[in-house]
């Protein structure tokens, strides 16, 4: 379900350290710009919703009381669902890598998909932005991409 709202930052969340960094970054940016945050968790069909993840994300959101927020759970392919959700959004924010570690690269497949296909600017946040070293390259800079 697309947001169709230019005052929204859409952020993908899966509970990984890079995802947590992305969620924190999205809330900080929303606070600075006076925007709302929509946190999206995507589950593959047939997998149950992770209640612990939902509670964890709510605690992050509660730490930013001035930022209007809502949470949405989707089912399907993660990259496709995030791109679809970012339609009409001000920004899409994702972590540089998710919990799956198939190959050692700075950019995971979901982040790469979002950079190629998102209908709005994309910010890719490495876990190192929160002091984590989950990114095997040790990259600390934000990567941005704009698709017009």
From TrEMBL:
Domain of life: Bacteria
CDD domains: USP_At3g01520-like (cd23659)
Protein name as annotated: UspA domain-containing protein
Family recorded in the similarity comment: Belongs to the universal stress protein A family.
Pfam families with a match to the protein in the record: Usp
Lineage: Bacteria, Bacillati, Actinomycetota, Actinomycetes, Pseudonocardiales
InterPro entries linked: Rossmann-like_a/b/a_fold, Universal_stress_UspA, UspA
SUPFAM superfamilies: Adenine nucleotide alpha hydrolases-like
Residue span(s) of domain UspA: 9-46, 76-126
